[in-house]
Every structure is written in C-alpha cells, then in structure tokens.
Specification:
There is one protein chain. The protein has 12 helices and 13 strands. Strands 1, 2, 3, 4, 5, 6, 7, 8, 9, 10, 11, 12 and 13 form a 13-stranded mixed beta sheet that branches. It has one domain: Cathepsin B, Chain A (Alpha-Beta Complex), CATH 3.90.70. The longest helix has 17 residues. By secondary structure, the chain is an alpha+beta fold.
Length: about 375
C-alpha cells in the first residue's frame, strides 16, 4: 500500500500533504531553515550559480539583512570572461562549458559585486527562461578561434563582450561592488565561506584542488573523514545554517518522485518504483572512494540544502532546492535526498565556517 508523502508540521502540531507525490516516506522536520523561492536554471548548466546565489540569499536572511532576489546571470557573465581568458592562456585547452562550482560564486561576488535580479535578468532573447545551448556553442567557437590566433587584444575582448551583450544583455550602469558591500556581502564575510570534501587519496585536514572538470579555477577543498563530512551538514542545518552540496545525480535521483535514494544493488529496480522502503547502501570511506575513482560518482550538479528530516524509520533526509526542476513544480522545487545518497554521491559541500562543529574547525585550522 502506498502512503501519501507527507511532512509532519511539528510547529503546528498537524500533518499536511506537502509534495503531492505518492511515495512511501513520511518525513518529519528536524530543521527547516529560511530560503528564497527556487529559481529555475532553464536549459543551462548554471546550477553552480543558482545554488551559490540561493545560499547567499539564505545567509542574508540568517544574518538579519533581509530578503533579496539576486542576479545569477550577472555572475555567469563574469565567469565566462574569466574562463575565456584562461582558455586563451592554456592554448585552447581550458574549460568553456557552462558548468562550474559554487566557490566560484563567492570569488565573483568578492571581485565584481552583485546585482538585483530586477536590474540584470540575463535574458536578451525571446524566452521566458534561460537557454544557453546555442549561446555556449558560439562561446566555444570564438574561444577556439582566438586561442588558435594566439592574439587576445582589445578588439578580441570587444568581440566577446558583444557576444555576451547579445545574449545576456548589456550591463547596466550599476555599482555592483558597492551594492554587495551595502547588503553585507563584503570580502571579509565571503572569506568565511568554506568548502569541504572527503576522499582518501589526499591527507585529511588539509586542502586540495578537487580533480573534477568544472573546478576549472583550482578551488581548494578541505579534506575531512566521511563521518565528519556528514556531521558538518547535520550540525549546520541544526544550528540555522544552510549548505551547498555538489555531486552526482544519476543513479537513485528521481525528479518525478522528488526523491534521491541509494538502494542496495539487488533492490535498486524495485526501490525506484517508490512503492515501499528498501534498504540502502551503508556508505564507507572505501566504497565512496571506489565510486569516485571508477567514475560512478561524477561532477554533475550543485544544489542548496536548507533542511533536515527523518522518515518513519528514523532515517535522515535532506531538504534540497533543485534549480533544474521545471518551473511550476508542485513541491516548490525541492528534492529530498537520503543520507546514504548524500554521502555516497556528494563530491563537496560549502558552508559558513560557524556552521562547522568547533572541534572540526580546530582540526582543519579554521579560525
């Protein structure tokens, strides 16, 4: 028998149908932190920026700065400029794809500031939503042409800017750097955002550059044991902080049911029918490492975790904003990831340093 997917509203002492999906999980909230409405990335690979902006908007709420709707495409534009130059310096061997990692959002805000969405939508074409498929192809073609010419002068830079203007729209006269500082997104604050990962091919409690293609700028991730990796997520959520999760969304990730689970292989097909709860894989440092080194866990997606729930069997699930949902999702654009899935398929997390347990901060040398 199927049960309606519900969340028990503890504050209201009532039960409410939440996702309108028939799955066997009954989720009770443990922590539910404020967030802005999910905004959809459309036909783009900009999940890294949508997750990063969503995270910053929740941080502004947490810090008492107010509720904001900030522009993703303003930062996507500058990201293209930066990686375009890197591609030139690497003789066309750089990464001009749409993907990235959330730490790049923090760098971009520190360098360029931020704009409200109403000031820069980033859509200068006939579409209600974002679509970068054809645009990214033109970016790559121009990048290859310039790399081959070995000349990136003012004229070539102007050609790139004209391409960005034609698709994303010209940049308005707006003090983005001053605006960022005025709402609390200062460089000092942005330096307090930290990245973690958990893999055994590097020493623990030291940072390293995660070997995935979209970490094209060599971002550093503090390496911690797996039990501490998940402990950081739980501690942050229970203490009012939110977390960005980046990882693989292939096996076990089901947008139709708005769930992500990690069933034992022998139960996988049955489990993905969501007719009953099946046992999930016990994740260890060893099997997580194995799946990373055999490319079963890939760098595919970034999402913003805002809450923590328990199912009727006491298993944890993570309430996660999913920008790749189609607009109008009846669940507000949220997924629920099991703890096993979150640990096995998560490559990295990003969080404010005060959301990290003190003993872990001390081991990592984070003050």
């Amino acid at each position: 028998m199927k049960h309606v997917f519900t969340i028990l509203a503890a504050v209201l002492l009532s039960t409410a149908v939440f996702a309108q999906k028939e799955v066997p999980y009954v989720l009770t909230p443990v922590a539910d932190n404020p967030s802005t409405p999910t905004r959809y990335q459309g036909s783009t690979g900009t999940c890294w920026c949508h997750a990063g902006i969503s995270f910053l908007e929740s941080e502004l709420i947490r810090r008492g700065k107010g509720t904001f709707d900030l522009s993703e495409m303003f930062l996507v534009r500058h990201n293209y400029e930066n990686r375009f130059f890197q591609n030139f310096m690497l003789h066309g061997k750089g990464n001009l794809s749409q993907g990235g990692h959330p730490h790049q959002v923090m760098r971009l805000v520190a360098w360029y500031g931020v704009m409200p969405e109403e000031v820069y939508h980033g859509i200068n074409y006939d579409s209600k939503g974002h679509n970068h498929k054809e645009f990214n192809g033109r970016i790559k073609a121009l990048g290859a042409e310039i790399a081959e010419s070995r000349v990136y002068d003012a004229a070539k830079r102007a050609e790139l800017e004209a391409m960005l203007d034609s698709h994303l729209g010209p940049l308005p006269e707006f003090d983005a750097k001053g605006y960022a500082e005025s709402i609390g997104l200062t460089e000092k604050y942005l330096d307090e955002i930290v990245n973690f990962t958990s893999f055994s091919h590097y020493p623990f409690y030291r940072p390293f550059s995660l070997e995935v293609k979209d970490n094209w700028d060599g971002g550093q991730y503090m390496n911690v044991p797996l039990d501490e990796f998940i402990a950081i997520i739980d501690h942050a959520l229970k203490h009012g902080y939110t977390v960005i999760w980046s990882g693989d969304t292939n096996a076990g990730f089901d947008r139709r049911h708005e769930m992500a689970i990690n069933p034992l292989p022998e139960y996988f097909d049955e489990a993905m029918k969501f007719e009953r709860i099946w046992p999930e894989i016990e994740v260890t440092q060893e099997n997580r490492q194995h799946d990373f080194e055999t490319f079963r866990t890939l760098d595919q997606h970034s999402m913003h975790i805002t809450g923590l729930c328990k199912d009727q069997n006491g298993n944890y699930f993570y309430k996660t904003k999913e920008s790749a949902f189609k607009e109008g999702s009846d669940n507000g654009g949220f997924m629920y990831m099991s703890r096993s899935f979150t640990m096995m398929r998560g490559l990295s997390i990003m969080v404010h340093k005060k959301g990290v347990p003190k003993e872990i901060r001390k081991k990592c040398g984070i003050k």
